[in-house]
Design brief:
The structure holds 3 protein chains of 3 kinds. Chain B is of the alpha/beta class. Chain B is built from 18 helices and 22 strands. Chain B has a 6-stranded mixed β-sheet with strand order 6-7-8-3-9-10, with helices on both faces. The longest helix of chain B has 16 residues. The C terminus of chain B is likely disordered. Chain C has 14 helices and 2 strands; from the N terminus they run αααααααββααααααα. The longest helix of chain C has 27 residues. Classes of the chains: A mainly alpha, B alpha/beta, C mainly alpha. Chains A and C meet through helix 6, helix 11 and helix 13 of A and helix 6, helix 12 and helix 14 of C.
Chain lengths: 327, 510, 325
Amino acid sequence: MNATNAFAPTGTRRSLLAPLQSQEATLAIFLALLVTGLAVATPAFLEAQNLRDVLVNASFPAIAAIGMTMVIVSAEIDISIGSILAVVAVLTGNLALTGMPIPLVFLIGLLAGTLLGALNGALVAYARIPSIIVTLGALSFWRGLVIYLTQGAWIYNMPEAFHFAQRSWLGVPIPVWMMIVLIALAGLFMRYSPLGRQFYAVGGNRQAAMLAGIPIKRRVFLVFTLNGFFAAIAALIYASRFSVVQSNAGLGFEFQVITAVVVGGTSIMGGTGTIWGSFLGALLLAVIGTGMTFLKVSPYWLQTVQGSLILLAVVLDVVRRRQVLVR
Amino acid sequence: MPEPIIELRNISKAFPGVQALSDVSFDVFPGEVHALVGENGAGKSTLIKIIAGVYQPDAGTIHFDHQPVQIMNPRHAREMGIAAIYQESSLYNELSVAENIFMGRHPRSSRLGTVDWEAMYREAEAVLNRLGIQMDVRAKVGGLSTANRQRVEMAKALSQQAKVLIMDEPTASLTQHDVEALFSAVRFLREHGVGIIYISHRLEEVFKLADRVTVLRDGHLVDTRPVKEATQSQLVSMMVGRTLDTLFPKEETVVGPPILRVRNLRRRGLVNDVSFEVRRGEIVGLAGLVGAGRSELAQVLFGIYPAESGTIEIEGKPVVIREPRQALAMGLAYVPEDRQRQGLILPMTVRDNISLAILETLTRLGFVSDRDEDRIAQAYVERLQIRTPSLQQLAMNLSGGNQQKIVVSKWLASKPRILILDEPTRGIDVGAKAEIHRLMSQLAQQGLGIVMISSELPEILGMSDRILVMRKNTIVGEYLRGQVTQEQIIAAAMGLDQQIMHGANTLERH
Amino acid sequence: MTLERKMLRRSFFGMSAFLKSQEGLLLLILLVVMFILSRMSTQFLTTGNLLALTRLFVEVGLMTLPMTMIIITGGVDLSVGSMFGFTAVMLGAVWQYWGLPLPAAIVVTLGIGTLCGLFNGLLVTRVRLPPLIVTLATLAIYRGLAFGVSQARSVRGWPESFQFLGQGYLGPFPIQFLLWVSAAVAVALFLGRTAYGRYVYAIGNNETAARFSGIPVDRLKLALFAFSGFMASLAGTIFVARVTTTRADAGTGMELDVIAAVVLGGTSISGGSGSIVGTTLGLLIISLLRNGLTLAGIKGDATVIIIGAVLVLAVWLNRLFARQR
């Protein structure tokens, strides 16, 4: 019996793109190079305090990226998490001021974010409205509500217990611990849980997934709900980081997170991507952001960088798919 | 005597304008390979789609595993144990071979309920090995060749313990070597009690692989018999045998000089070095099997996929065609094969569909003239006798025959010099068919050059002045009207030895 | 011409019943909203106030014209708000820092907007990326460029003649209103009465069949995206003339208003149907709603609540209507 070697390329130009096949590996290398470059340009970059700042800055986008990875893997999109973050941050900030026990405040915050995510999920899965429309509407709706309710006022003077993000354990800031733990757990989930694998099916070939008996609507609903949950966790970190919660909290946050996820190797078409990659993407963005400050590059260019990265990642993804596909 | 695993009795199915299946009975035993053959449009596709749950029959009964059933949808069919391998993929390109086989049924580690990857890889390899295949189960499916993708699908069916497996033209794009491997896999499945329905145009495969063979023709069952009791020529006769009616009145025309000359046309994967010509007043029939490359040739000529090399000359002048707009400007028109997807815009009206290709000529001062549009549309409605309550009727509401007439009208309105018709009378009623044939004769008389792609041999033989046969994206035969038989054409299309076909001529035909 | 044929002519592709019901419904909603607002404030129904209102919606209104066509073809352009802001900034940069005379600066700005749109279009038609992703990315890129180029500084000191464009009147009408009306009429005529307008609907209903019919699909889509960029820059220019300053964050979130107006007006998000008349009604309703909320004391930025809700509701209604057909 002749063995068929599935690896034998049948005439495609794979050699050029072979290293890029593992986008995560490329990303890790690129990140290492970038950090090295920055360290050479400005040695101050490698100071412990700065590294700690970078990690804390990366922590809440990375955690939000967990949910977003699942959403994009399922071939959907959610551009409302910035507004969800705002709602949760403002809500918890205000509740903390009323003297409510802090654990309860956080619980309510998590619940709120999860519900907002579930609302998105219901509209997408059951009312069958495209996710871009639902989350575009949600982005505005919740943002407007926050603006209205806060009247632009900032929230401050929260009790000390609220600011868990400012504390450390064993020298490592709490948000960084949270990031590590959640990323690890989520990575395990997406790899080892049958449910996690189903997200890949729903995004990779929805028709086939349906035929295989996977309940598409329930999965889509779930993925948006989870996204809301992780956005809420990110919001808690965000809100407790500094002593004030601004009324424009989270503006543009969804962009940061989507960039991290897409740069991290998750294809916008769905069906592929890893938590680990999104984590690297979030780290990369945090390094770039801090690096720009160190190099005295105006922070105003940040959005351009984000948009360009998204475009670059998507173009590379499309090119890779076309080259690998064999007639 | 074992019972059939699936039994269809007296199945009928109609679509608007055409009776796809009439009173067809068909069954499959466990551990049998039952081949299903027939020309394009004979009803094979409809029959297996009914079994796969895509369509519901209008009449008749289905029994599965001794129980009367209704196969409501594809998922239901799959749950019952009916698996199908089509040309379109139901695989996840970004996931591994192993996961494709086991998606939704991942092997779990007993303690945590998590996915046991090692077990999945092992079991996937085991399944593939049983089929005689060795493959890297960790590789992404997206990078595999068609042959390997098919193997994954078969492994999937096997691991799902399918009781019935439908294979629709599985060897269409395989090399000889891959075909042998496929056969081993099929034999293995058969030994394990799977009932296999095998559709193929390649009769040699039927004889190598199948236990029984069923021939369909025009939606009717011609016969079902053990393969041992059949010969190739008998099968071919059964597939095509019908009298040449006077349904195809091709009037004698004076054939003029070449209006279209194609030399060494090439486009990778679609057209492989094709050369031919069409003369004024001539109807050239283009015959061949599904996948032979006829529609592809037409689409390359028309500019949908521009040619990579070769020349095209219209009325002696070389032309470059990089998009349909240019083809149109050169006097070329293409009535496509899939009228609903490629020919019509269903939510638009009859009038708007007819005027679509010439819309820019119907403008005054830049604005479309309703009057001119109505006039032209009305003219074609009358000329082609399109049955519609009004010009404002939506195209989607008309019957297949009338829809086809609309598409033809659209292209006639562009006053082409060369008209390519791709399966112009497929799926339409007899009356409309005759009208279209009459039209083609008239057009030829007016001096157009016509290329007619058809899978209906009587139509090819009746309407064409010259017949070209295509196989594997190139032209393999050329015949003159009245000097060739249906069997010869099929033989050329299938690449069969002409000697075998000789015997068919002496057999009786109904 | 019989009355019946006149009515039939106004219905695109035989969808008269559907359009009539959605357009009629919109008109009804519009009248209801106007009624409610007039009750809330005696100032509302004065011609002065209404005309002042039109000034505000012109900027969004100009961008809804290409957006309607893009959505009909099944695409979308999320970057209009960013192109708006970027071109506003560039107008300031070109005029003040490059020292070009104002008319030339305006022409250059319009050119920049068109180029931005072309960039979007090329990525969609040549590289074959989904419009959603492309314009989501360029939304960030153009906004970032706006901030980067301006460094959050604004350009002031615009000449009176220029300010006239954004603040002046021609008769009783604000100038930009007249500009918008002419543009809207032109685009409506294009869509409804020309061959290429018909092609837009054809592409949205069945792109494959459109290609097979000889319609230059890619070129048309490219032109639509370029037009979107052009209109965004035109709106940006008028904006600068109106507020006499360039702000890098101008137009943030504007894509929402534009898309909501188009979808509310009956254009299906999946493509194939829509009209400028419907879009105009949607635009009016949204603008009035926003104005009404402001009158009720809700701060400007917060009025975006209503747009978000309207967008989702409008798409939902669209689906319900479509299924009934």
